[in-house]
């Protein structure tokens, strides 16, 4: 059974790709199998925060890679709203620590590809053997990720970011 048959786009969101937790679990296992089949094993998994945190952690577990790092990059402000360029935010991972390592850079989506390109270039500048993995790639991306689970041209609703933020003062009721 194909991914599209197992995880169809809900009829109430024809312009959205909705990823549920169960499908995410299958996506990570599929990505891990693809990476293993390529006969390449990362020494370090680097998450592009925030969207890449959950996929990177799940992939690190699936690949039995214990070393992880995070690069915080801001680019998207909302649906279709971006900064002029992606910006690395503090605290920053020391890329010099990646010299000579096999590094898997992970994000949730390669949309424009500009964030992924920024991080890949930063890691490559320090002599790492770097590859990339994303849950989704879009045809508009300027970077072809090394590994991807699915391609779409829709806006993606991820299970970890589809609900609005929790705001206000937390209740002290027991």
Automatic annotation (TrEMBL):
Pfam families, alphabetized: Pribosyltran (PF00156)
Recorded GO MF terms: glycosyltransferase activity
CDD domains named among the record's database cross-references: PRTases_typeI (cd06223)
Keyword Transferase recorded: yes
Keywords: Glycosyltransferase, Transferase
Residue ranges of every copy of the Phosphoribosyltransferase domain listed in the record: 17-161
Protein name: Xanthine-guanine phosphoribosyltransferase
Upper taxonomic lineage: Bacteria, Bacillati, Actinomycetota, Actinomycetes, Micrococcales
